[in-house]
User: Fold these one by one.
Assistant:
Number 1:
Amino acid sequence: MLNLIIYGAPGSGKGTQSDLIIKKYNLNHFSTGDILRKEIVDNTELGQYANSFISKGQLVPDDVVIGMIANKIDSLDKDKNNGIIFDGFPRTVNQAVALEEMLKVRNLKTDLLIELIVEEEELINRLLLRGQISGRSDDNLETIKARLDVYENQTKPVTAYYEKLGKYKGVQGTGSIEEIFERITQVIEQTI
Ligand code: B4P
């Protein structure tokens, strides 16, 4: 069993690398961003509520995303669970504390947080490029800058939390997708 957090700034490639990691290690993929976007597309009440934050580059309130992740964990078939990738969660220290607690009471734990390290100019370029095709309400320059501010102020402290737990590993997130995946694989192999 391998429970992994893939962490990084907006556009650092969390979703991109998660797709490769889940295939190689046969893991469940819990992406709070994907779950919220599905709610937005389905125009549910939760989707409308979430979009009022996402379109401004703000975080969706902790209680909403924490509840979503708890439901996902409880929906797993325990006998067939090889592990989970948490992608884009936790994004605040509050979420990190809640995640560790909800795993503990279910006799589970996180093994590793992998940060994808990418400089700001590259992040902005990637997200603007994606914005040309994604149709996402948050891939425009103004919202990208707001997301990067939120990341600096609210999400960054999550790394110190996992450093203290001895579970933090940083990986350079620039280069080809395959090169980055190779770096991530090396870190995972040192852990399992
Ligand atoms: P997310 O869906 O998590 O969005 P992201 O940070 O933009 O994505 P990611 O880092 O996965 O980037 P990707 O691989 O796609 O969240 C969106 C919003 O939802 C948040 O801003 C927030 O409002 C809300 N939300 C989500 N989780 C939440 C939580 N826990 N709490 C509160 N609110 C929450 O890559 C980006 C682009 O780069 C892609 O176009 C990709 O093709 C490209 N790319 C990837 N790797 C590359 C490489 N090596 N070289 C060049 N380009 C690359």
Number 2:
Amino acid sequence: MTDWSRDPVFGDVATRFAPRGHGPAPGWFPLSNITARWGHLSQAEWIELRELDPRLTLPGAQTIAASVLFRDRSLLERLAVERAYAAALCAADLRARALPGSPRILGVVNVTPDSFSDGGAFLDPGRAVEHGLELVAQGADLLDVGGESTRPGSAPVSAVEELERVTPVIRRLAEESKVPISVDTTKAQVAEAALAAGASIVNDVSAGRFDPRILEVTARAGAGYVAMHMLGTPRDMQQDPRYDDVVAEVTEFLRARGRVALEAGIEREKLWIDPGIGFGKTLEHNLELLRRLNELRSLGLPIVLGVSRKSFIATVEHEAGFERSAPDARLGGSLAALTVGVQHGAEILRVHDVREAKQAALVARALALWSKSTGAP
Ligand code: HH2
């Protein structure tokens, strides 16, 4: 039986609103045992629902659940106790069952001398553009252009140097390809220049913590925004990272930073979240985030996932008694992690190896759809 009291969004509601005198914990409630897909509840299940609150009809419950899920969680506060409880459970159930959209591939173009996986390979703007166009030809749906490495311990780059690296590349990619371009930066000045050069998304690994003006710059341009979780800064993030519950804490962080982004004027439809695999996380933290990635879907925002070539893959090899692979030899591990990510709700996949990632993502999604159509878990 699902224990809704642990649900990241509705747990507190479930606990608070659990009907008294019906059992010790909110998890007892029969709705949590619903096995039919939403809209196909058995008659017995609807009778149970109606008994809980005679005013609760199928369209009514669906509307409330959808509102709670996608817009206004505070709506629950204004409902009768049982109705709020039922709506919270319906929404959680609805969310858990819905499959995210088809995964999209975000191809990485690092215009840096020191990126962990391909540093120096595309520092020359001509080569970077060529590489970006090649990724589009391989099936990239979007491109992510970065001018500063964020690998653990990396040194910061000045805004001027960073924008001089990325803007010529973005300008030419915007002219020569049709795919949306994101700029991977934490600096408002760089974001502003990149948006003027043709980027339409800001990918900010600091989620607006390093340079809060980046949110205003993004909002003013009507651009998309990726808020990523990182513990601390690239310089110190891997120094003994600790969490009580990594998934709950990352979810809470993204909820809070998402709210700040919305308050700055970024449109909800253009806001994406990212758990920041490898950014202030041990191997166990990364594995736990992948295993429970679907909990982030409670925020109702598309999930970006970056597992490509990351060092946790080499750590797994090392712990299994093998030699650590070099970053450009981690394709197998990248695809294995990406597959799990897609099955757990990742929608935008940030990758270096576009052709292979696209194929893996399609197969992972087909498997998820197949499981759903057969009713398998
Ligand atoms: N990972 C890296 C950089 N930017 N952005 C998002 N949203 N998610 C990520 O997981 C992510 C990211 C690190 O990868 P890479 O760009 O290849 O290396 P470096 O930071 O050394 O340039």
Number 3:
Amino acid sequence: MREGSARSSLLRSVCLAAFVAALAVGASGCSKRAGAEKYEDTRLKMGTFVTVTLYGEDRERLKEVGNAVFEEIDRVSAVFNVYDEESEVSRLNRAAGGTVEVSETMAEMVERSIGISRATGGAFDVTVGPLVMLWRRARESGEKPSEAEIKKAMESVGYDKLNLPIKTNRVRFEVTGMSLDFGAIAKGYAVERAAEVVRASGVESGLINAGGDIRAVGAKPGDAPWALGIRDPRKRRSLLLEVYLKDAAVATSGDYEQYLEGEGERESHIIDPRTGHGTRKTISVTVIAPDAALADALATALSVLGPVEGLEVLEKSFPEADALIVTPDKRVVYSPDFRKHTKKQ
Ligand code: AMP
Ligand code: MG
């Protein structure tokens, strides 16, 4: 995180934790329940509050696993931190132009990201960096970019210009001015990797909640599903509904937290890479998927695509995922199977 923006990022995290979406519903602190010890800790990571909840028999062991989970989140998020000039993504972006040798973690993310870009027709696109920077500057100055500036940035955007030759860890940018931004997937990916740490440790029951990017490992003690409240994007204190998860992930994207308002119109921080403008088709999207990185990326992609195209893409390419979409006119649209997650299994 950029030094100078520490305060605003803290504020942003507080807002995020307050609005963003799903909260685990249940007891907090360390307690003995149904014969199980509970570990719970919340730390500020990736610009948001991350809460790790674990259940097991041995309190000391749970603490060790909890620490390892936070370490994994630190490791993964450091790779994709665009605010840190020394991070791998920043070094890759600076080296733009040639072929760059990257880490396994980066290669895996680039490969997955290109796959999701293809399947979403470019609605999700990690090469959106030049547009993200243009709009971020606009939010800071309060002045919208010109169409000429948007057009220029778009020349350096497009997943088809990002190359990762098969079975190599080498990334190549095909045009100048390109930059990668993993803001739409890195949090989910970090949460997914953290869930792998939990599973590998032998702990069978846990929840990792990174400000609305959530991964459930197994069920709660007694085989109960994790109950998660999805907040109403336009009524901060209300819940839209509750979902019940076992061994699955949920992510929410929305424009409620970062946007530029001018001439009565909002510009979301989620950009449609095909137009260069903030998305106008949704105000919030929640995706449930088997994997937190996929849930995160799809929540962003469907924010761009809107309910019609979005549900078509889910049906065709991601039948394992479900979505709830809130449109600007406040309609709530569900994928056909979403409702099954609102019933306690
Ligand atoms: P999320 O909150 O997961 O929807 O991610 C939003 C962040 O992802 C933005 O702040 C940008 O950094 C980046 N981003 C914006 N639009 C896109 C897009 N269409 N595809 C991929 N990343 C994007
Ligand atoms: Mg996302």
Number 4:
Amino acid sequence: MHQSTMNRHIQNKWQKMFFLPFIFLLFMLSFISCKKTNNSVSFIALGTSCKISLPVYDSKLQKYVNFIYDEDDRLSYRKENSEIAFINKNAGKAETVVSENTYNLIKRAVNLCYETDGAFNPLLLPVIREWGFDNGEYRVPTDGEIEEALKLTHIEDLVLNDEKKSVFLKKEGMGLDLGGIAKGYVSDELYRMFIEDGIKSGTLNLGGNVFVFGDKDYKVAIQKPYGQRGEYDIVETVKNQAVITSGAYERYFEKDGKTYHHIIDPSTGFPSKIIYNSVTIISNDSTLSDALSTAIFIKGDELISKEKLLHSDIKVVTQ
Ligand code: AMP
Ligand code: MG
């Protein structure tokens, strides 16, 4: 071998001997540090603050954030081009064909309306608009206005067509609002994605609605109603479960010394009476937990016993 080629060969050999283990060590360190500890991302979506924590590299988290943004764009009645906005614009005029996922969620919401004896009602938007909870221009409507709006909230006036995957609101002025179930649904969908992607543990927090998964137990603190953000009296130990809370303290306004909150009793059109300051449902089905937390907040004990009979594995925590 030529002298200079041989020198280069020796040099390369030394470089390899020195650098390869070094590179390997670096790789292992980054692998260990990123795999063992969760990476988190916080952002605003679904009208609230969200946080995803998973044992994956930062760059992989963006996929799930984008998924939540897309779901928000599809499901929020406030977004002009959402599927729900189209259904609402067509109320009283025409049926709207929607994506399979949206169709299935609406169908589930309708079934949960029947199951909760009407306490969970995804058609309350006309009433919600009267109170200004849709746009933040709060007001106290007259009894006559509420009476008129309530006429547009009958679940029988929502027509589903399984074959066409179409939704039709029979009367003009009717409106779908999935705000009482969407966060739970998005958690369930994300969990399915995590499993598909081979992610074995993690936590999700969509505006205080928590979902934890993996082999280990997690301790989840439940917000103290009317306390400081993050203040708590109750801590639940959960595993592969959703912990979803509804409370009057989440959104409300005050007028003439009275407080009006955002959870509407469909039988009166008024903010529901306060039986408990908050209702938390723990189960392995986030969509169910979300709808039930809203419904049981309104109906209290009579619905708790019925739902416990229907779903033996739910846990209800009231404060
Ligand atoms: P949550 O925070 O899950 O209890 O849901 C409350 C949100 O659901 C409200 O902001 C409304 O958009 C909607 N909502 C209010 N009252 C009801 C109800 N009785 N049934 C279903 N959704 C409701
Ligand atoms: Mg809910």
